[in-house]
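Priority: medium. Attachment 1 of 2:
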């Protein structure tokens, strides 16, 4: 039995990876691992508020390990924090660390190097899935997500805050990956077959910062109160 911690970004790819892993024989997902900008309490790039990530973990029925990092964060600080997190989850019986990467070879190679000598084996359950088909399959299975970040150099800023649905896919400009794997956009998942219940959130302010456009997705208080807090660790 492979006992897996999943790298969790709050977005559609990590959420779908959870769904796939849970439907893979001899695999048990035992926790989620997320990196948060400590200054703002948000997932980097996705800009998802920690309260929403906690609600996601509760709805998935899994413990959440939060790794707070400074911003900006030197690479050596990030790698040290990940080594420490790997040691901790290994001590709680993990055998593998899974990632929702799709096809970027340099990212996959970096993940593998990070885990060398840690005692954890890497897993890439979505690796080289055709992204057009994958995006359609996510939506058809009931995954609901919101575009929380757009790189305006790759995708018009009007896409931020929109639902990840068939209409969005049909309107993507030529050359934009349907899953945003090249950094065109990032998402936050509110519902899907990996969750027990749908999360409630409302769209807030849209801001441009550090060359990206962000839509602030705010959890509705009743929703987060219903899920409660998720501990920072196994």
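Attachment 2 of 2:
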């Amino acid at each position: 039995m492979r006992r897996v911690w999943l790298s969790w970004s709050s977005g559609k790819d990590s959420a779908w990876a959870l769904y796939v892993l849970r439907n893979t024989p001899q695999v048990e997902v035992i926790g989620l691992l997320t990196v948060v900008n400590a200054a703002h309490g948000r997932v980097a790039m996705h800009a998802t508020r920690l309260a929403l990530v906690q609600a996601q973990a509760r709805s998935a029925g899994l413990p959440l390990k939060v790794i707070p990092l400074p911003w900006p964060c030197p690479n050596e600080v990030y790698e040290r924090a990940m080594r420490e997190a790997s040691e901790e989850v290994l001590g709680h019986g993990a055998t593998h660390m899974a990632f929702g990467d799709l096809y970027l070879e340099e990212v996959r190679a970096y993940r593998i190097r990070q885990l060398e000598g840690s005692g954890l084996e890497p897993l890439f359950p979505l690796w080289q899935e055709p992204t057009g088909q994958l995006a359609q399959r996510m939506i058809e299975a009931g995954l609901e997500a919101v575009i929380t970040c757009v790189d305006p150099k790759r995708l018009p800023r009007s896409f931020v805050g929109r639902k990840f649905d068939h209409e969005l896919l049909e309107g993507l400009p030529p050359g934009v990956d349907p899953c945003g794997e090249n950094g065109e956009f990032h998402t936050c998942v509110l519902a899907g077959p990996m969750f027990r219940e749908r999360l409630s959130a409302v769209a807030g302010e849209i801001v441009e910062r550090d060359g990206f456009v962000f839509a602030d997705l705010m959890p509705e208080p009743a929703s987060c109160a219903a899920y409660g807090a998720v501990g920072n660790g196994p």
